[in-house]
Design a protein that fits this description.
The chain has 470 residues and is α/β, with parallel strands linked by helices. It has helices at 13-23, 38-45, 63-74, 90-98, 111-135, 151-163, 180-190, 208-216, 233-236, 252-264, 290-295, 301-307, 323-338, 348-356, 362-376, 384-387, 403-421, 426-433, 437-446, 450-463, and strands spanning 5-9, 28-32, 49-53, 80-85, 103-106, 170-173, 198-202, 241-245, 266-267, 276-277, 281-286, 310-313, 345-346, 381-382.
């Protein structure tokens, strides 16, 4: 696997040589003094990280170095920049951060400390590069905007691939904000009916008195105000997919009518007497526990089994590990463009806060918080205050005290972290974990992680952007 590339802007050859010696086992390094060709060299080599000396004989205040930072950002460099200086003034460091540096170090450079910082910054740069690639459609696979590399979301992607090849009714469950409609759209767009319409209807957002006519349409004179015939969502979905969101909110009478439609693909408009046959695939979704609703007499058991020929349960965001950072970076790129802000990533504290938070609103909440952060951010990197995430939060889980369940969760998280720290090298990942390579292979097979990690290795080869955690 190729080493991360670092571009060193430094006039002193002895410093260049010392830094190259200290980092060459993990990084490929190019170096140059600042001159008219440097910008072109940087864009040609596209380094993950730039090391930039702010000090210049032409400027006693470091402002020349700050102008270099501005020039790099203005010419479109989106990678990480680590600046360093011998000047102790806090104002210079603040200005460097303001104009795009992710860190400011002070001379003399400590080779071991520099290597640790480069390792951390390169991981974040890899993550951001991957997020840009996926957002632009350059990732290894697109699922209608769905993004993630964790084992739990790859199980969902596998399910989508399988159910897309047939027309079986599907029931998608999961907490609010986990992406149920995105999953339904992905199934439709990859499936046999992708040339047909995708028609969503939120069963919980329409008054009960209007829901039947919205769903099945009505005939002229069916009720006061019905001055003409109107088609419902079912008819508009002909040849395609009807997505019934919040299906658990359907009233009893409509459950009966929907059950009949699922059984023989026919229905009658409100006020009508003629059976209409339709060729429509049904995908339903709910955040309600339908089995509990059945026990309470609120949902028909026969309809539950008709809808759920295939059942897909979406994982909450708190169980998706590193996906939080990956999705957050993609959302940040979108928000920065939407609000015309220069935002290049998150501070270390913001990343830690996002991973500690339990995300009760899941991906929807993450989207909203990132949008808020883009508006509130004053610098080039989002802070915890911008996200408005409490500083002291405890990650919530599903309440299970099963040793086996929690051991698997912990080991899976540690394996994924070791994999990202090692940039996809399994031998080094095993070393990080303090286990043998064969033991790591057994764990991967045991937890069904081979596919997700292989997808990440493929991403490394195809786009040179490892999906990593910070």
């Amino acid at each position: 696997m190729a080493k991360p590339n670092v571009f060193f802007v430094e006039p002193n050859e002895s410093i260049i040589s010392a830094v190259r010696t200290s980092i060459q086992d993990e990084f490929d390094m190019s170096a140059s003094t600042w001159n008219a060709e440097t910008i072109a060299q940087i864009h040609e080599q596209a380094p993950l990280v730039i090391l930039l000396d702010l000090d210049s004989p032409a400027s006693e205040t470091g402002e020349e170095g700050v102008r270099v930072l501005q020039q790099l950002r203005q010419t479109g460099f989106a990678g990480k920049i680590i600046a360093y200086t011998e000047r102790p003034e806090r104002s210079l460091a603040v200005r460097a951060i303001q104009y795009g540096a992710c860190d400011v170090l002070f001379k003399p450079l400590d080779p071991m400390l520099l290597k640790q910082i480069l390792r951390r910054v390169a991981r974040i740069a890899d993550l951001e590069q991957e997020a840009r690639g996926v957002t632009a459609g350059g990732g290894p696979e697109e699922f209608s905007g769905m993004l993630g590399m964790s084992p739990s979301i790859h199980r969902i992607f596998d399910a989508i691939r399988k159910v897309s090849t047939n027309d079986a009714p599907i029931l998608i469950t999961g907490e609010s904000g986990t992406g149920k409609e995105l999953t339904a759209r992905a199934i439709h767009e990859r499936g046999l009916r992708r040339q047909g319409p995708f028609v969503p209807i939120n069963c919980g957002a329409i008054p009960e008195s209007l829901l039947e006519s919205e769903l099945f349409g009505y005939e002229r004179g069916a009720f006061t105000g019905a001055v003409g015939q109107k088609k419902g969502k079912v008819e508009f979905a002909q040849g395609g997919t009807l997505f019934l969101d919040e299906v658990g909110e359907l009233p009893g009478a409509l459950q009966v009518k929907l059950l009949r439609f699922l059984q023989d693909h026919t229905f009658e408009r409100v006020g009508g007497h003629q059976a209409i046959e339709m060729n429509v695939r049904i995908i339903a979704a709910t955040n309600v526990n339908l089995k509990e609703a059945i026990e309470k007499g609120l949902f028909r058991e026969d309809l539950y089994y008709r809808l759920g020929v295939v059942h897909i349960n979406l994982p909450p965001l708190r169980e998706r590990g590193e996906d939080v950072s990956l999705i957050a970076m993609a959302f940040l790129r979108q928000a920065a463009a939407r609000y015309n802000k220069r935002l290049y990533g998150f501070t270390r504290e913001a990343l830690d806060a996002m991973h500690a938070y339990s995300w009760p609103g899941n991906v929807r909440e993450l989207f909203n918080r990132i949008g808020r952060a883009a508006v509130m951010a004053e610098g080039t990197h989002v802070t915890p205050a911008d996200l408005d995430i409490p500083r002291q939060v405890v990650r919530q889980d599903d309440g299970s005290i099963s040793l086996k369940v929690n051991q698997q969760r912990i080991e899976t998280d540690l394996i994924m972290k070791a994999f990202t720290l090692s940039q996809g090298n399994l031998s080094r990942a095993a070393q990080e974990l303090g286990i043998s390579r064969s033991t790591l292979y057994r764990r991967l097979r045991q937890y069904g992680m081979e596919r997700s990690l292989e997808a990440r290795r493929f991403s490394d080869v195809s786009s040179r952007a490892s999906v990593t955690e910070h």
